Amino acid sequence: MLRSFPKGGVHPPENKFSAGSKITVLDLPKTINVPLSQHLGVPAAAQVKRGDLVKTGQLIAEHKGFVSGNIHSPVTGKVVKLDKSLDSSGYKRNSITIEAEADKWMDEIDTNSSLIKEFTYTGKEIIDKTLAGGIVGMGGATFPTHVKMSVPRGKKAEVVILNGVECEPYLTSDHRLMLEKGEEILVGLRLIMKALNVTKGIIGIENNKPDALSKLTQIASQYPEISVIPLKVKYPQGGEKQLIKALTGREVPSGGLPIDVGAVVQNVGTAFAVYEAVQKNKPLIERVVTVTGKGVKQPSNFLVRIGTPVNQLIEAAGGIPEGTGKIINGGPMMGKALNSVDVPVMKGTSGILLIPEGESQREAVDPCIRCAKCISVCPMGLEPYLLMTLTEKAMFDRAENERTMDCIECGSCSYICPANRPLLDYIRLGKFRVGQIIRSRK
Amino acid sequence: MNSILLYTIISLSTLGLVAAIILYFVAQKFKVFEDPKIDLVEESLPSANCGGCGFPGCRNFAEACVKADSLADLYCPVGGNETMANVAGILGLEAVEADPQVAVIRCSGSFEHRPRTNTYDGAQNCTIVHNLYTGDTDCPYGCLGLGECVDACDFDAMYMDEKTGLPVIIDDNCVACGACVEACPRDIIELRKRNKKDRKIFVSCVNEDKGGIAKRYCSVTCTGCTKCFKVCPFDAITMNNNLAFIDSEKCKLCRKCVVECPTNAIHEINFPPRRVKEEAKVETKTSSTEQISTKKTDN
Predict the structure, then answer these.
(1) Is residue A10 part of a domain?
(2) ipTM attached to this prediction
(3) A230 and A294 together in one domain
(4) What's the gap between Cα B183 and its chain centre?
């Protein structure tokens, strides 16, 4: 019996079309648009002026405060604009536009692809290098990694969990990364373990990726402190609370953080980025992005520079197929539809998904029939139908008591609802309102 | 037989008497003194419980009025000056007069003027859309057209116009309680001074983008050209972030700015027809309100 989290979950069709295609390096784009807010927390502050010449890997925006991240130039070229530009939601956000001229890397960056396994850094040095490299969680939530590496006083980390689950249908960027950069990921994990002063590492991989499982198990056999555990395929196993429960049996308390049960969860992509930042001095300026979808000619995994327009990725995968109804940034369950294909790839962009017209529309909404399917699939043990009703009726006090803030927004309830009710939409609204109320209390 | 009846009556009466005595003393002991003025004030209020005064209901407002030393910060927009004079009379305080207000919708991006660029089929709630993205048009400031303001209105003073996709305010019913202003996630609705005959002049746009960009997605946007600002003889117009704003306190309803506006973003409502001048550029003006009694006529 394979391990998994016990409560709820769904199993949507996996549709991992791009699992077999190797990571290919995409050509440098001509202009690159780097938003200043690519992470959770305070946006970075620009350090360059219009007309400045920047090198690849040069710091162009510095973190502001602790929960924030550095941003580096993904290309060599000239800063042409420091202004607001459209982000994936259609709103304007501050960003830096750079016209690419060449690809000359900063001198201290080791561009050699050879593997460096050994390290002598102290934990503090590793955290500093992670902060300097602007590393954020690559799974999509983009939480600054150095914050996760710094354990708050009074808490103790006991285990580092590496998230190789990739439970979102369609996406394969983590899968490919594990196959092609397995050794580096393991070094990254050891670096994270060193930074947190932890002696136990677990890598969780769903068993729909047998090749990645056997590859990482084989590499991990060098390190007795690291184990690789296969998991039953179930969405949302990649949610950190679900993954901790599946791998260690510990349950993060309501309103708590993984560190409350001694666990720190990092994505495999983050581990790779930490490896590059620490061992190669290479900041986070490129990432693997899956471009896929049912009509897409060549579903692919690209290694692209941050700031590359999404359009270029889609072109490289064979262009937008006829009858595309929606283009999604991320996976089909948690991703968000894009308003325009001119928006840039960001640190948290794990995939671009093209959905054909027939599947992109929502069905007509019917009244709730109290079938309780949403309750049975909720991995957090909430009652989504109730949270939606409470939000609709503006009963936010009760919504707070019903733990609406514990919702991880995985969308399992909306996926399963036979009446097609927009459960998650309303729960998000409820979280927004309850959040406002909680903040106003302080 | 008779004795059973007698005992029953006697025992029950005694029980009732004892209970009454206990209850009397308990009522004395736990008596809550309430100022009788509160009831009087509450009776004089409109009992709409709309929250327009800033209190959860009329009763709470009445309590606040009775407690207060002056009525300076307390005003019932629904009852208006008359009600407040009554309240002041009851309490022996001085009534503070305020100008009656009315809500206006500061967006005229109808289907015709602001093309829809994508389809939104999620939850029909403005705040949800606003938190998610710019909406089904490219304007990040304009009305989302899902009617959260209409739902918030307790006075039947609003409805959605299906032809334009914008909400409409029925001036006669609007009591300026501010519920719609609160409900709108994009701060489009504004409470303005109610003028004679419900005449209104206002910039029907809240777009802060530069003119050239705004024009791309809406043909009736305020471009921030400052023409109205320059022509206003009363300094009622201010320019901020590429957007003109007419101060309803200073505006004398001279209508000079309306003619000047190149995008018809300034609306005049409930005015008599203009006398046609020779070179006056006149175009038919469409407005968010269907109730416009007058429009400039094409000639």
Answers:
(1) no
(2) 0.89
(3) no
(4) 10
Confidence of residue A346 (pLDDT cuts 50, 70, 90): very high
What was the pLDDT predicted at B78? Answer: 87
Any idea what the CATH number is for the domain that residue A300 is in? 3.10.20.600
Give the phi and the psi of residue A319 in degrees, each rounded to 5. Answer: 80, 170
Class of domain B36-91: mainly alpha
Task: Give the range of the structural domain holding residue A134, as residue numbers without chain letter.
Answer: 112-279
* Residue where one domain finishes, among candidates A279, A307, A336: A279
**pTM of this structure:** 0.87
Q: Tell me if chain A has a CB within 8 Å of the CB of B81.
A: no
On whether both A237 and A323 belong to a single domain, the answer is no
Q: Chain A interface, mutation test: which of B128, B136, B216, most A Cβ atoms within 10 Å?
A: B128
Which of the residues A334, A359, A366, A425 would you substitute to probe the B interface, choosing the one with the greatest number of B C-beta atoms within 10 Å?
Answer: A425
Q: Which residues of B touch A92 (CB under 8 A)?
A: 140
Per the structure, the count of domains in chain A is 4
A324/A242 Cα distance (integer angstroms): 33
**What digits encode the pLDDT tens for the residues A224-278?**
999 999 999 999 999 999 999 999 999 999 989 999 999 999 999 999 999 999 9
Q: Is residue A21 part of a domain?
A: no
Same domain? A392 vs A274: no
The pLDDT, as a whole number, for residue B34 is 84
Q: In whole angstroms, what is the distance from residue A323 CA to residue B122 CA?
A: 20
Give the domain-ending residue among A102, A125, A153: A102
Q: Do A60 and A174 fall within a single domain?
A: no
Give the per-residue pLDDT at B290: 43
Which residue of B132, B207, B209 is the best one to mutate when testing the A interface, meaning the one whose CB has the most A CBs within 10 A? B132
Give pLDDT, residue A21: 92
Of the candidates B118, B122, B128, the beta carbon closest to that of A339 is on B118
Candidate CATH numbers 3.40.50.80, 3.40.50.980, 3.40.1190.10, 3.30.70.20; the one for domain B101-269? 3.30.70.20
**A48 shares its domain with A96:** yes
Q: Residues of B with CB below 8 A from A362's CB? A: 121-122
Instruction: Show the tokens assigned to A15.
Output: 């549709």
Question: Which one-letter DSSP state was computed for residue A211?
Answer: H
- Which chain A residue has the Cα nearest residue B117? A339
Closest chain B residue to A335, measured at CA? B132
User: How many beta-carbon pairs under 8 angstroms link A with B?
Assistant: 41
Read off the pLDDT band of B56 (50, 70, 90): confident
What's the alpha-carbon Rg for chain B, to the nearest Å? 28
User: For chain B, which residues make up each domain, given as ranges?
Assistant: 36-91, 101-269
Q: Cβ–Cβ of A432/B127 closer than 8 Å?
A: yes
